[in-house]
Specification:
This protein has 224 residues and is mostly beta strands. It has one domain: 4-Layer Sandwich (Double-stranded beta-helix). 13% of the residues lie in helices and 50% in strands. The protein contains 4 helices and 17 strands. The longest helix has 10 residues. It starts with a strand and ends in a 10-residue tail after the last helix.
């Protein structure tokens, strides 16, 4: 069985130790390094149809297969945490850009969400769906929060902070505040409402927040 360790603090990485014949699939572009003995190839996880569906929805067409023996190092692309979620025949829905790696016994698909999630929430029209038995690794921006919701318990999440939730949970989107708060208050805007039972994962940083914080430090057009 592969051995995993999550290392680091603000910029975490995943170390996967593979024995002979063991494999792991990773999203393209996340490899930091590997032992020379580890074989690397690109594959269409889920076959051509599954790969085409992911491509049409803006997801990765190919995944990278690493076959042991040896060590593989994978990392996210933003400061944050790596979240390990073991599946036992169940499924999870994941924010589309947070996939890091899966074991070959886990299937990778896409799921059409309600239009308002993508159009109003700005998060894309599709969620990645993983199901089966094995480990899923996600990279969360900032800190990662895991919360279990009891039967009927409801959590409201600012749309861009949603990382993942278990398949089968009820969810929807609602707006908060009027046009003035959307334009000037920069608060809330769109909330995803998720109802238990089940687990929900959040991340405390968004790409938009990171870009907004860095933007003042970049030269503006016309400036030298």
């Amino acid at each position: 069985m592969p051995q995993y360790s999550i290392e680091g603090y603000d910029l975490q990485y995943l170390k996967a130790t593979l024995n002979h014949g063991e494999t792991i699939y990773a999203d393209a572009g996340h490899m930091v390094g590997k032992d020379k003995s580890v074989q690397l190839k690109t594959k269409m996880q889920g076959g051509l149809f599954g790969a085409l569906k992911r491509r049409l929805t803006g997801e990765t067409f190919f995944v990278t297969e690493f076959a042991g023996p040896g060590d593989v190092y994978l990392s996210g692309i933003f400061p944050g945490r790596i979240v390990q979620i073991p599946l036992r025949g169940n499924g999870i829905l994941v924010e589309s850009h947070s996939f890091l790696a899966i074991e070959p016994s886990v299937s990778y698909d896409v799921k059409l969400t309600k239009l308002s999630v993508g159009w109003l929430g700005g998060e894309g029209y599709f969620l990645a769906k993983f199901h089966g038995t094995g480990n899923v690794f996600l990279h969360a921006y900032g800190e990662a929060i895991e919360k279990y919701l009891d039967e009927g318990e409801t959590l409201q999440v600012e749309a861009s902070h949603l990382l993942a939730f278990e398949d089968g949970m009820k969810y929807g989107v609602q707006t908060v505040g009027g046009l003035r708060s959307m334009l000037f208050a920069h608060e809330g805007l769109f909330l995803v409402t998720i109802q238990g039972p089940g687990r929900v994962w959040l991340h405390t940083l968004t790409i938009e927040q990171l870009v907004s914080a860095l933007l003042p430090f970049f030269p503006q057009e016309g400036q030298k």
